[in-house]
Amino acid sequence: MNFRPENVQSLAGLALTLALCWIVSENRKRFPWKLAIGAILIQVGLVLLLFGLPQAQQLLRGVNGAVEGLGASTRAGTQFVFGFLAGGAQPYDVSNPGAGFIFAFQVMPVILVVCALSALLWHWKILKWLAQGFGFIFQRTLGLRGPPALATAATIFMGQVEGPIFIRAYLDRLTRSELFMLIAVGMACVSGSTMVAYATILHDVLPNAAAHVLTASLISAPAGVLLARVIVPPDLMERSAELDLAGEDKTYGSAIDAVMKGTSDGLQIALNVGATLIVFVALATMADKILGALPPVGGAPMSITRGLGVIFAPLAWSMGIPWREAGTAGGLLGVKLILTEFMAFIQLSKVGPDLLDERTRMIMTYALCGFANIGSVGMNVAGFSILVPQRRAEILGLVWKAMMAGFLATCLTGSLIGLMPRALFGL
Q1: How many other β-carbons are positioned within 10 Å of the β-carbon of residue 263?
Q2: Rounded distance, CA 262 to CA 268, Å?
Q3: Which residue, 65, 188, 376, 421, could crosslink 409 as a Cys pair with Cβ 3.0–4.6 Å?
Q4: Which residue has the higher pLDDT, 4 or 315?
Q5: What's the sign of the alpha-carbon dihedral 377, 383, 385, 391?
Q6: What is the spatial distance between Cα 302 and Cα 288, in angstroms, rounded to a whole number?
Q7: Residue 70, number of CB atoms within 10 A of its CB
Q8: For the residues 236-248, what does the mean pLDDT come to?
Q9: Nearest to 160, CA basis, from 184, 130, 129
Q10: What is the pLDDT of residues 283-293, one digit of tens each?
């Protein structure tokens, strides 16, 4: 495996993300050097393990196949209910097959099915064991106390608000740094249901998309912990605590109960995703119309994506992306932050190979795979205000910094992927 200048270029991304978080740190004298080295080594080790070992590659191919099977099964259910609107037998000749992709019928139903499946796997204790296992690893390697380590692990599989539910009894006793870390990690990762949705969106433009999305959410958790600890250093008085599952909100009476409640939860998530996309796309379109009325700049009309591309192009370049592609990649980063990662993934799936090559597309998949956006700020405030209402004022003071930490955590992960040689990923 040969390293190229593009790999060395990605070191700038690692340095830049750490530097930006250090600048806004509440205590610049307490930079966690040991945690920084340990978290990055964990990320590197996981990537090398998952993509370097033949056995792990077989596992990832199995995951990708399972996701494709899940998508096919979901389409069968969706076509049974919605018929040709969901890609079933068409009652007329189709001159533009690409127009048959309807987000509401192709992607949102996946969220329903995965939420129901996740609830069933939790009831069967499979996901619970995984969360406990990763919680133990994070506790030992990242120096976290038991309950925050468990919530961090659960967040990877369940989501930014659902993960902390499992330590609800401890939330009022967490330190300021631990509470901030949970919010930041939630924005650095995505939930299991959205992982499959993103993989569905990228299926035709990124080989092994499901494996990359799963790996992205997994390895961004240590990055989120690291950057959160840089911004709000840990309390020196933190003491270890017993690892416990306080999860009354996620217990089910039977397998059928799990499937039904999971479906209900999935419906709320799918409706929230759909409603958010409608509103944000409408607002973005209005803003583009206003900007389009202004005089052209550089011979082209102004737009949100173009403006964000200029702002975030240096950050995209620092991750190892060629400068000729940095404007497009920077625009995607801006769309993810200002609108949603769903919008960014949809746009990524539509960008042609003339604008983004295969390596850049892969790096951007990791950089976009997180919940850090303005909409998630409101979701976290609402969710944590219910889980721990007595700390609402504290949460309001932390959530915007947490969004920054979560956003930069995925950029750090993208830089780490850019640091790896192309051959590791079969490029």
Answers
A1: 15
A2: 10
A3: 188
A4: 315
A5: negative
A6: 7
A7: 18
A8: 51
A9: 184
A10: 777 887 887 77
Whether 246 shows a pLDDT value over 50: the answer reads no
Helices 146-158 and 176-188 cross at an angle (nearest 10°) of: 20
Spatial separation of the C-alpha atoms in residues 270 and 369, rounded to whole Å: 18
The interaxial angle of helices 192-202 and 255-292, nearest 10 deg, is 50
**Considering Cα of 244, then 246, then 247, then 248, what sign does the dihedral take?**
positive
Q: Please report which residue ranges of 159-254 form alpha helices under DSSP H.
A: 162-165, 176-188, 192-202, 209-231
Other Cβ atoms less than 10 A from the Cβ of 422: the count is 16
pLDDT (tens digit per residue) in 95-145: 655 555 566 776 678 778 877 887 888 788 887 777 777 777 877 888 887
Cα dihedral 214/120/277/329 (nearest 10)? 0
Higher local confidence (pLDDT), 18 or 83: 18
Residues 41 and 59: their CA atoms lie apart, in Å, by 22
Query: Helices in 53-100 by DSSP H: which ranges?
Result: 54-82
The domain segmentation of the chain, as residue ranges, is 5-85+102-425
pLDDT at 111: 72
Q: What is the DSSP string of 204-224?
A: TTSTTHHHHHHHHHHHHHHHH
3-class state of residue 155 by DSSP: helix
Coil, strand or helix at 243:
coil
From 267, 276, 396, 414, select the one nearest 339 (Cα to Cα). 276
Instruction: Tell me what the mean pLDDT of segment 286-306 comes to.
Output: 76
Rounded-to-integer distance, Cα 195 and Cα 369, Å:
8
Residue 76 reports pLDDT greater than 50: yes
Task: Using the structure block, give the residue that is written with the tokens 């939930």.
Answer: 191
Question: Does residue 325 carry a pLDDT above 90?
Answer: yes
Tokens read off for 323: 């400068």
Is the CB of residue 229 less than 8 Å from the CB of residue 21?
Answer: no
